[in-house]
Design brief:
about 260 residues, three-stranded antiparallel sheet, about 30% strand, elongated
Length: about 260
């Protein structure tokens, strides 16, 4: 269902354009048929003209219904599905039960504190002729430090690839590690603005899918928010496209992120 709605929303401008073109053709036919009806002499010619008028009105009603369904899918239903996906993508951790007890994670600080405690040798007292000798001085032996884990170097985060200042992604940056819910910050504007869209695809591929968008211009603000837990871990490319009233668009802006949930 989501794929159908995204497909209709992406091609909504073309559907409106085709319906408008058919509407102009029907208006021209209506003018011709009305002229033929006024000039008709025979009854058969008048009946034919009336039949043509019925056909024109039927096509007009079909065009109106098509445009109404397109508007409903590309606006009302698309926004409702986006909200539903964001609400259901939040996962609540389930506690683990073992033999009727709930396992709790051990804090890292507590484990290190236990490892750093000194080890005290036990006190041994040797007696000779029932005269106790003084106990030896306890010697504190510090436990060996636990091995330190070697962390992989963090990737260098750079700016997104944005050839045109009208379509810019400010955050996240290139190669930035992200997880959970994030917001895409940037700019989407145009002198002849119509709408913008954000798409995603596995890094290094061109199979982009619609993620979200809007029909209002944004300057240094939130373009779209979503939960990255819906994507498998790895490198993903985000693409921002700004479309004008003529269905043209400046060069899109792209950024590659590292999803680690």
């Amino acid at each position: 269902m989501v794929i159908i709605v995204q497909y209709i929303k992406s091609y909504a401008p073309y559907i409106y354009a085709v319906c408008g073109l058919f509407a102009l053709v029907q208006i021209y036919r209506l003018w011709q048929v009305r002229a033929e009806r006024r000039q008709a002499v025979f009854t058969l010619e008048r009946e034919k003209a009336v039949h043509e008028l019925y056909n024109i009105f039927s096509i007009a009603m079909f065009l109106l219904i098509t445009m109404g369904i397109t508007y409903f899918f590309s606006n009302t239903l698309a926004k409702a599905l986006n909200v539903k996906v964001e609400e259901t993508s939040t996962v609540t951790p389930v506690p683990t039960l073992v033999n009727g007890f709930i396992l709790q994670p051990t804090p890292v600080g507590a484990a290190n504190a236990v490892a750093d405690l000194p080890t005290v040798a036990p006190t041994v007292v040797i007696t000779t002729n029932n005269t106790p000798l003084p106990p030896p001085t306890p010697t504190a032996t510090k436990a060996a430090n636990p091995p330190t884990a070697t962390l992989a170097p963090a990737p260098i985060v750079g700016p997104a690839s944005c050839p045109d200042e009208r379509a810019v992604i400010l955050r996240p940056g290139e190669n930035e590690r992200v997880s959970g819910s994030i917001s895409i910050i940037g700019t989407a504007r145009h002198d002849n603005f119509k709408f913008y869209k954000v798409e995603y695809a596995p890094a290094g591929t061109q199979g982009f899918n619609y993620l979200g968008g809007g029909d209002s211009q944004v300057v240094n603000g939130v373009l779209y928010s979503f939960n990255t837990s819906a994507l498998p871990n790895g490198a993903w490319t985000l693409r921002l496209t700004v479309v004008d009233q003529t269905s043209n668009y400046p060069p899109p802006c792209q950024v590659t992120i590292q999803v680690q949930n």
